[in-house]
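Bench notes, afternoon.
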Amino acid sequence: MNSPWLRTTARSLVAAVPLALILFLVVPRHAGIASDAFDVYSIAFCFTFLGALFDVVLLALPGITEGLGWLVRFTGWFAGGLWCGVIGRWLWFRYARDLADLPGIVWGGVAMILIEIIMLLIRNKRLSLQ
């Protein structure tokens, strides 16, 4: 896979599995196990895939890797997580599930920051906090 788009998609598909397992254990059951698994996996994939795209956009900003750029990057991750939370809630509603089952949108931002830090650690990238 030489295409960055395919690498990002493949990495996101794999990274969504553990996140989906966590969500599967946390949210209440709705229909069958397969339907519930699809619902939580699609939300998890939304966070992992769009999180990678948000990170690419943030890294394109000049000076993001020096000085207080890490703060801008964290803020961008948080904002991206809010958007993923909105998209996830829309999907959840489209799946005829109760929105009260999901945590608040702010937790989407927190989750995105945690996901991106874990992805950086997995890829052995250094996040400088100088």
